[in-house]
Amino acid sequence: MKGQRILTVFKMEMKKLIRTPMYLIISLFFVALLVVILGFALGNYYEWGPDAYGNPRSIFEHMVPGLFAYSGILLTFTFASAFAGDRDTGVQRRMKTTPITSGEVIIGQMLSYTIIPILQTAIILITALLMGFNPILTVEGVIMVFVFMIFMSFCSVGLGLITATIAKDARAAGSLAFIFIVPQQMFGSFIYMGEATRVIGYAMPSQYVTEGIYRIFYGGNLTDTFIWIDLLVIAIITFVIYVIGVKLYDR
Amino acid sequence: MKNTEKYEENGMEIMSESKLKRNEIKFGPDSPHAIEVKDLKKHYIGKHSYNDVKAVDGISFYVEKGELFGLLGPNGAGKTTTINMLCGLLKPTEGTALVGGYDVRKNLNEVKKLISVCPQEAAIFPFLNARENIEYFGNMHLMSKEKIDERVEELLKVLGLYEASGRKAKGYSGGMKRQLNLLVALINEPNILFLDEPTVGMDPRIRRKTWEFINSLKNENRSIILTTHYIEEAEALCDRVAIIDYGKLVALDSPKKLMTEHDAKNLEEVFLKITGRRILEGV
After folding, report:
1. ipTM (interface predicted TM)
2. Residue B266 has what DSSP assignment?
3. Each residue's pLDDT tens digit, B12-43
4. Which residues of A touch B171 (CB under 8 A)?
């Protein structure tokens, strides 16, 4: 592992994001816009009852933890399209003729995708607070939310890597990414479909992020063991996804 | 024609200089040659036997250190497959390939430190400018920042991309992208350089300029494998050429010797005689 190569991949990925405004806008502002819309539409409806800790919450507030996870899920699309795009131009084949290893490529990309969730989380949190979101805010809690979001983005990058290696080109990768996005969106993020679908949600990485953030914001207690279990599960899922992704990439 | 003669004259001068320098080149553990290929095969097995493809079918050749070696052949002859095996992108089905003395199957990491590839397509990042593209690949080879900066300056000037070096590559013309594609391959000062149709899509003026540049690389003691569809390009630049057809090596010698042997006016005639005859004979 050479830091110079990892840093080069990291910088290139950042430039790609900054210079490809469509990816940046989708990554940073799409969910924030959704927060605004849902805040206006559902901020005064309380039909979903109180939160798990007995405090009254609007439907919008119930949705906010899932919206954080959803913003991370969308990175699958961003990454898969961008990565497959590099393959279409032949750059990836060219890179394979240089001494860089798959591990260095993947780590460089993972690092670049820690910046986006940090920005995403900050933008969504500020927007949600402005729209009436009223969580238990502590410094440690907010830091923990950022940690969850970084893991969510790693996981999505891993899924994007799998998608890109399976897809024939960038366009196909963008479409194929929705195989991973839609189920997570429906069963493991902000859409509540009743208790029956909760079981399905546990097959989705995003469910653990949604639940973890929910417990942090509404329980407000980081000694809650379930928060750490959620974090452990998402870490394990991410690791497994990366192993599969790197194997496919090498092939 | 006059231009070709001029290149031939230059080629003779350069050859004599580079012959002197070849003795100074030392890389790889035990091979006396830059590249040694023995009975190399790449077969793709289909679901049915009639779908099997023998992309490369037992070719053997060597490339001397400091030599510019041409690989010619019709479309689908196996040129790119051969190059892809030599630079580690494809695993050979059978046979041996030593690059810089290292076996591509066993010591690919060592091979990658010695080589650079200019692929057929313009494999560059469209959202990076020329300077950033070249720097990126310099970093892949762990070059120091000072060395990269120095080399980027040199390279951008040599093919006239300096003026446009701050613009994103996606705005370049096809010819400029091809030139950048070539320059990227030179950042690490490779001992062995693979040029896979480097001048495709260039206008005649830029192509001539690129020929001069490729010719000058011989002076820098690099061993170069060049594949091209422009036979006059191979005739002007290459010390020796190999003609591949249907995955097999059908001719190998210096352009002059091949022309004499086949009683031809130029290499194109030799090429057509060899590959055309095979087509007519249905080989």
Report:
1. 0.82
2. S
3. 333 334 443 444 555 566 668 899 999 999 99
4. none
